[in-house]
Amino acid sequence: MNNDINRREFLKMSGAAAASLNVHSTPALVAPLAPIAPIANVRIGMVGVGLQGGSHLENFLKIPGCRITAVCDIREERTTWATQEITAAGQAAPAVYARGPRDFERLCETEDLDLVFTATPWEWHVPVMLAAMKSGKHAATEVPAAMTLDDCWALVESAEKYSRHAVMMENCNYDRPEMMVMNIVRQGLLGDVLHAEGGYLHDLREIKFEKRDEGLWRRAWSRKLNGNPYPTHGLGPVANCLDINRGDRFDYIVSMSGPSRGLSDWARDHFPADAPERQEKFTLGDVNTSLIKTALGKTIVVQHCTNLPRPYSRIHMVQGTKGLFQGYPNRLYIEGRGENDRWVDAATVRSEFDHPLWIAIEKRAAGAGHGGMDYIEDYRLIQCLRAGLPTDMNVYDAAALSAVVDLSVKSTAARSRSIEFPDFTRGRWRTNPRLEISGEL
Ligand SMILES: NC(=O)c1ccc[n+]([C@@H]2O[C@H](COP(=O)([O-])OP(=O)(O)OC[C@H]3O[C@@H](n4cnc5c(N)ncnc54)[C@H](O)[C@@H]3O)[C@@H](O)[C@H]2O)c1
Questions:
Q1: Which are the contacts of 63, defined by CB distance < 8 A and separation ≥ 6?
Q2: Per-residue confidence band for 29, with pLDDT thresholds at 50, 70 and 90
Q3: Does the model's pTM come out above 0.85?
């Protein structure tokens, strides 16, 4: 009954909203943008329960209002581990799918689930999401959602066709400094945001050469493409500050890669002369830099560097007409506050600008993956599904942010020629409401 009422209300809203937009070429507003029926207890099927999937699984076991009723992995030891974790948390043993790389299709077809959540290697995100939506489930994926423009469109079209959420789980959007900056921006303290920079600068050489976990698939992508294969950690948070898909949108990109040296140097220094790793040829430039221009004329720098020795950074710079925030280390400058020409250590203003959600949830998130931000993103996903609210990140965001992979490859291959982003929202970016993340639990 409750569901019927909400469904009717949603259809009414969708029609009214579409009419007010006066866009006849686009489908009526669907789950990606409009509320859907609340789900009291979210039944989750997890596909890929390795390092990151396992960490999400542990979060979901602590989040009220959801349970994991099915698990899938190509490695039986991981489904066994997941089953142990789930039963130890007092939930019923999940249905297990471990009959190979396409067994997620059987899971999607067979199980009665609300959400399929995938933390598989990159090449499997889209097949799992499409199978989930086709069988009537909402879908969530680890980052990036898709590696090609065609797959970005496939996600958008499927979410619209089946009226399902297709969420990309960008945990860095929920890290404490990122949420604090969003709070500062929303309060207008940086003025109009004109420029931002973000990236994923993380020495992964050792991990890429491991004979387990990410080493089994991530290095392969460094042999397949040259561009930015992993743009969303740096780009997601600054896109929120720039209201991408909600008042502005990515318009075009130029991208450039430097030489590829880091992985072959690592192989030379760590493997014997006859090791197959020494023969591998890498295409991924060690440092890739992209510049994105938005429809409103703003600029974003996105960088990727995972093959060279360096301390970790996501850059995280947001600059407006009244000041700027710069990450790594976190510092703030607001004209008229403090001394001219001097950074303020962000730690000294945290009590003033901390995001209310972090204050509310801090204790529960303690000890969870990546400093607690993974718990908060999982919590928000379940909270939105339970309340029937649009998710913080929708399929259009997943597509726009992930499109940087393919577009950076294309621009890099074409002597950094500028390449246009598709408008996945088909014009709705002009009227979509700004993202607000509530601090209420
Ligand atoms: N957001 C973050 O901070 C973060 C951190 C690490 C990884 N990730 C993302 O998480 C995903 C997984 O990374 P990881 O580090 O957990 O890697 P992993 O190799 O530890 O885990 C991947 C799991 O997927 C399983 N798998 C592979 N193909 C499958 C298939 N077809 N069907 C079912 N299971 C399959 C593997 O057996 C493994 O257990 C990637 O997309 C990665 O980019 C995100």
A1: 375, 378, 379, 382
A2: low
A3: yes
